[in-house]
Design brief:
The chain has 21 helices and three strands. The protein has a three-stranded antiparallel sheet. The protein is mainly α. The longest helix has 28 residues. It is 58% helix and 2% strand.
Length: 479
Amino acid sequence: MRTAWKILWMSAASIVALGVLAFAALWLVNLHDEPLGEQARAMRQPPAHRLPDEQNLYLAFMGAHAPAGVVPTIAGAARVAAVNRELERLALDPDPHFSPPDDDPAAVAFEGKVPVCGRIDDACWRDAPGQATALAALLAANREPVARYRALWTLPGYEDTSVPDLMLSGGATIPAFGDEARKWVIADLAVRLRSSPPAGQADALRDLMADLAMWRRVLAGSGNLIASMVALARVHADEQLLALAMADPSVPFERMPGIEPAPLFEDGDWHIGGALRGEFRGSVPMWNRFRNPANADWVATEDGESRWHRAWRSLGNRMAMHFVLPTATENLYARVYARFIAAADGPPRGLPASLEDSMPWARAQASPGLARSAYNPMGRILVSIALPAIEGYPLRSWDVAAHQRMVRLAWEIRRQRIADDAIPGFMAAHPEWSTHPVDGARFAWDAHARTLSLRPLGRDSGTVPFSIPVWQPAVRAAR
């Protein structure tokens, strides 16, 4: 019996010793970080800012709620400068408590809720004229925010001038993008397109095209991924309203010379590699905080916490941070992002194959096997967590591009007065308007419902409409 206990004790001691040796080896492997790679160094560089403040859409959005009488771009520049100073302070301070600028009590805000066109669909087009009185009352109370939103149409570009910091800045550097004021403008456009005299309908169409062009500038500008996704959603909504107007024979497009109602963006406008680079730059401050030794000892104070418990948590924090090698993680992050940026900015037809190849490659980079994963294990885990979010965005952009093609197709059907039975042949003859730019799938024509539709490829694109009605001559519709 004594021999059995001795064997058991020796076995347990051996296991503990092996565990200690393995941990010591793991600790030693992670004592030294690697130098910053050229790829990461290049991706850190921000785009050049060429716009003066007074012409920058980003600053106008950031200052949209400035007090009456204050120029939005000036207020936006001041707010961004204050946020940038706070983020620069936090780069040297181990206490990651971000204090955004206080909201001005005299800030201009949209009062009330727009009762229609929260979603651009048949109900928006049908119900908007009945809400004209309510919209007029909202305008009387909100002339300043509505005027500020319309003034955005005149600004030539979008350049994000904030210090990128995804971890701490939160929403402080993300513009409001004029949400409620924009809803009023879109609802008003629907009313004017449906019920104004021809001259008023033409003015409404010009305003809709100005809004579409403005969001194109945001999409093609130097912003982060949130700005790109918001711009895509706004372009999609504007195009949907345009399609509803085109399907209505009472909107006299034929008597609106000089207005191109269905422009197609350049392929480069749909590339979101620049936004992905912005996301990479936003991760750099996080790796810098890991480089600051003072951050290893800092832990948030909990109510009623004893000194020993706080010391224990501080020790755990230091041990966990030992296994995040910040420069190695940033280099890995740069390699992964560069691969997805190349896919996002490449030809759309090659995008699915590029993404299909890139995701397994990226996972292999983050988890290269047991032996290699011993180096920078926690950093590799952080990169692995970020991978699924990166993959879906490029396809979402091209889904909106496909929707724009479909709106152009609907316009050509109306402009050229294509008969119902000739629409399938017309679509086959014009793949530049009738197919998805990524996979070449032809849009579906439903002759009974009189709709065109497409199948979106992006994972998160299915919650918005990808079906539009098609024009029908008034005489035929009356039968």
